[in-house]
Amino acid sequence: MNKVSKYYSFFEEVSKPLGRLLVAQVFFILGYRKVLNYDATAGWMESMGISGSLLPLVIIVELFCSLGLIIGWKTRICAILLSGYCFLTAVLFHMEFSDPMQQISFMKNIALSGALLYIFANGAGKFSLDNRNVSAEEYDGKG
Q1: What would the 3-class secondary structure string for the chain be?
Q2: Which residue among 35, 114, 117, 137 is least packed, with the fewest CB closer than 10 Å?
Q3: Which one, of 37, 11, 22, 43, lies nearest residue 111 by Cα?
Q4: How confident is the model over 55-84, as pLDDT tens digits?
């Protein structure tokens, strides 16, 4: 392996946990805010035609899946759950395209869904709990 490939491989592996952290922090912060503003969030959901009784599930998915992504535990499951959540959020809450902010929120959620699908497809990487028992020789870069 030449010197450039060695550095490329290192940066590729370091970018995986950093990417997971950058994506996951959005969900962790929003989940935490939903806990702090529970009644207001449930009321907003109700005003959009979605039962506020789903809010505990939303909070659990946002908080636990974001933590899973950050530490690289059950990464693919967390990524696919959050990807579906983003897609549903875009479709259920941000379809008023005459409002530029709703348009931006829709595109943001679709983009996050895509990023999470990428994490799902490529796995957590070397620096994760998912791969904590995999030796350097066994690690193939795919998980």
Answers
A1: CCHHHHHHHHHHHHHHHHHHHHHHHHHHHHHHHHHHCHHHHHHHHHHCCCCHHHHHHHHHHHHHHHHHHHHCCCHHHHHHHHHHHHHHHHHHHCCCCCCHHHHHHHHHHHHHHHHHHHHHHHCCCCCCCCCCCCCCCCCCCCC
A2: 137
A3: 22
A4: 999 999 999 999 999 999 999 999 999 999
d(CA 31, CA 60): 8
23-39 pLDDT tens trace: 999 999 999 999 999 99
The structure tokens listed for 67 are 């933590």
Question: What pLDDT score was predicted for residue 11?
Answer: 87
Could you tell me the residue ranges of all domains in the chain? 16-122
Angle value at C-alpha 124, between 58 and 112, nearest 5 degrees: 45
Half-sphere exposure of 126 (CA within 13 A, CB side): 14
Q: Mean pLDDT throughout 76-101?
A: 97
34 neighbors 63 (Cβ within 8 angstroms): no
Q: How confident is the model at residue 141 (pLDDT cuts 50, 70, 90)?
A: low
